[in-house]
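Work Package 3 (structural annotation) set out to generate three-dimensional models for the target panel prioritized at the project kickoff. During this period the team completed the workflow that converts sequence records into C-alpha cells, so that structures can be stored uniformly alongside our sequence database. As a representative example, we reproduce one entry of 224 residues exactly as it appears in the project archive.
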Amino acid sequence: MLPIQCLCEFLLGQTDQLLKSKGNEFFKGDDLAPEKSPRKHGKNAPQTPEIPKDAKTLQLLNHLQNVVHKSTEPSDAREIIEYFLRRLASPKVQNRSQAIQGLQLLFAQPGKVEPVENWLMDCLPSLPIFAEVQGQVLVLLRQALQIETEPQLIFKYVEFLNVWGAMIEVEGSGLVLDIAQLLVERSILRSIIFGDDTTCYEPFLNIFLSYMKRVRICIYSSVI
C-alpha cells in the first residue's frame, strides 16, 4: 500500500541487518512465527499476533526482488531501480554505500538474502526490465561518475558505460566530456585507477574511439 519510494527507503535502513544474515532463506507463509502482543484487555481477551520485525524486513526485500526480477509491474520495477541508482550520486558517502548494499540485495535471487558482488555488469543487464531502463541507467551512472571517490567503483561505472552506452543512440558528446572531465580534473583518482595495469585503459580508450568514429562518419557524410 505504501509508495515505492517509501519501501525502498525502509529497505535502505535495514541493509546492514540483512547483510549480517547472508545466505538465510526468507520466512514464508506459515513459517512466520508471530509474536503475541503482551497487551490484554480482559481475563480471556485474545492475544493479537504480531509479525516479528525481522520477518517484515525479509518480506519487504522479497517483495522488491520479485517486482524487479519478474517485472510483473514494469512501472514499479523501473521506479525501484532508478531510486537506488539515483542514490549513487548522493554527495554523502553513507548514502552511496547504502545504495550499493541495497542493489546487491535487490539483485539477488528472490527468496534469498545473498548479496551479489557483480550487481552492475552481470545482474542489472540480465533483468527483464533492463531494455526499458537502459537509457536512464546510463544517465544516472554518468552522474554517479562525477561524485564517486572510490577508484574501483569509478572503473566499474566506466566499464558499464563502455559496454552498454554504445548499444543505444547517444546524442551529442556528453559521455565523452564526462570521461574527459574525470581524467583531467581528478588526477589522483586517475593515477590510482590506471596504476601499473594497462588493461584499465581499455574502456576509457574505447569510449573515445567510438565517439571519434561517429564524428568521422558525420564529417564524411556532410562532405558527400
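Residues 25-41 have pLDDT under 50 and may be disordered.
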